[in-house]
Amino acid sequence: MFLESGYEQTTVDDIAAAAGVGRRTFFRYFRSKEDAIFPSHDEVLRDIERLFAEADDRQNPIEVACAGVTLVLDSYLSDPDVSVKRYTLTHTVAPLRDREVASVDRYQRVLARYLRARFETDGQPLADLRASVAAAAVAAAHNHVLRRWLRSGGTEDAHAMARKAFQLVVDAFSTEQPRRETGDDETVVAVLRSSASLAEVVQQISASLRPSGGHPQ
């Protein structure tokens, strides 16, 4: 409906009529017409936080974080036709695009909070910095896969792509032993080309977090 009639021209009454419900019933489920477009991010976030709470401390925290964002991916894969149409719509309507970006930030904060707690428990140096950077890498891997799948019209094997993308992140951030303490916390600035591939991004971030010797300790 949004694609046919235009986002601005489509009203809540139009949506309710198409769904065969009244305006009051519509607002029992959605706060606005924008909410009717997007998946239930609140519900997915609750599922992710539940997964993190139930995760075994012996599990690799990066792998757990990747499992968390897989729930986000699955929420899109559950209805490819709607997801592809939503992608088309959000790329033509700026307010919707901004809302989609904001939802990514919410997921990334949840990832960073979980990883920070795990890194601190494991005695990792620079736990806060590592958590923020690792969360960004996990989110970037997910977003790369999701965009590629959407651009394919929902035809590519998203789970196969996700396994490869997440393995890059796991390999970049996982160590057998805690890294050597480097003294005061440092700020790491990675300068990357806008056209850099996911592999290049992860490699650059990983290299930036290595001790001065250049190799994990």
Characterization of the model:
With 217 residues, the protein is mainly alpha-helical. The protein folds into 2 domains: 1-36, Arc Repressor Mutant, subunit A (Orthogonal Bundle), CATH 1.10.10.60; 37-208, Tetracycline Repressor, domain 2. The chain is 65% helix and 0% strand. The model is unreliable at 176-183 and 212-217 (pLDDT under 50).
Radius of gyration: 20 Å
The average pLDDT value, as a whole number, equals 78
The helix/strand order is: HHHHHHHHHH
Task: Compute the number of structural domains.
Answer: 2
Number of helix segments? 10
Question: Briefly, what CATH class of the largest domain?
Answer: Mainly Alpha
What share of residues are in beta strands?
under 5%
Q: What is the annotated CATH architecture of the largest domain?
A: Orthogonal Bundle
* Contiguous uncertain segments of 5+ residues: 176-183, 212-217
Key words describing this protein structure:
Arc Repressor Mutant, subunit A; 2 domains; Tetracycline Repressor, domain 2; 10 helices; mainly alpha
What's this model, at a glance?
With about 220 residues, the protein is mostly helical. Helix content is about 65%, strand content about 0%.
